[in-house]
Each structure stands twice: as C-alpha cells, then as structure tokens.
C-alpha cells in the first residue's frame, strides 16, 4: 500500500546536474482527497433530500480505505521511514478501491492552502501535525500516528471539512505550543464526523494522545 517509484531520469539529458524527473505507477482515480469529495452520499444541490448516487462510498468502504493506509504506514515504519506528511491529498486511488500512500511534493502545489509557510521558508501541513512536531520540529513514527488520526477523520468527513477550520493557522500553532508547554492545557480534538461510529472515533482520539507512547 505504498506507491511504487518506477524510475528516475534527468530533465535535461545533456546535463548531469539537471533536475530529476520521477516516474511513478499510474493510479487511475487520482488523489484520495478529490476522490472522497466526489463520492459524498448527500447531493451538493439538495439540502433537504439525501440523494445517494451509485458512486457514493459506504461506511465499510471508508474503513477499507483507512485500513489500507494503516497498512502502508506500518510498512514504512517497519523499514525505518517516517512519512511526515500523511493526509488524504498524499494518498492515491487505483482500481477496485485500491489505495496507496504517496507524496513526491506534488500536493504542496495542488493543495497549497493546506500548508503554512513558516517565516517565508519551510512549508508545513500544520493542521495534520502533532503538537511536538510543531513545537520541537520533531518527526517520529508516533507523529505519523497523530497524522493518521487526522487522515482517518478526513476520510470520514469525505474531505469536505478542513481540520480545525474554526481556527486560524496562528491559533493552531498557539494551541499546539500551549499543549506541549502546559500539561493542563489540552489540544482541541476534532469533533466526531457524522458518518463515524463511536468505536472508530475512540480509535481516532487514541491517535491524538498527548503522550506519544500511548498513541
């Protein structure tokens, strides 16, 4: 459940120092964020009547997507890698609802509003990051688990909501810093999505434990 890198070549074949181009496997249904948005069970042009289309995703299918992402993260961690930017925008969808983790930097251009530029330099997905990542710049397997919790929340909202959409970027950063510096100051949890079972939401919240060892 990790996207395959098929090859690398020089953009300018006459120069060894040319920018590199990567060839990756083709996933016909694009990124998961857009895929989910297009398969929300409620019609966008109907407020009162829920119109279920044949393409709408069912709860079991949403969990199947989440399980595949979890399997991909588990594999990366078993190989000693930390993803650092897990989100629906960085997952690709193939045939038969096959989902694979990806991220070759493309999403930073396609989803620029979901990233925050620190002091005009570093571009970070702050709304998907664990508090210790924001405060200390620390990225571990445990911070990936935090991001997986946000990604699972995204899946169950059909990517129709932004995490902490009631907070500005600066407020998200401030809340994270407060939570790290003061144990009595809790980081706000994202509310339970409408299509989320209580037991699944409990798993999501477990991913957001302030103690990384408990995630």
Quick structural gist:
With 215 residues, this protein is an alpha+beta fold. The chain contains 7 helices and 6 strands; from the N terminus they run E-E-H-H-E-E-H-E-E-H-H-H-H.
Task: Describe this protein's structure.
It is a single chain. With 215 residues, the chain is an alpha+beta fold. It has a single domain, classed as Orthogonal Bundle (Transferase(Phosphotransferase), domain 1). It is built from 7 helices and 6 strands. It has a two-stranded antiparallel ribbon with strand order 1-2. A hairpin with a 3-residue loop joins strand 5 and strand 6 (122-124). The longest helix is centred in the first third of the chain and has 20 residues, at 59-78. The radius of gyration is 18 Å and the shape is globular.
Give keywords:
215 residues; alpha+beta; Transferase(Phosphotransferase), domain 1; two-stranded antiparallel sheet; globular; collagen binding; ATP binding; nucleotide-binding; ATP-binding; membrane
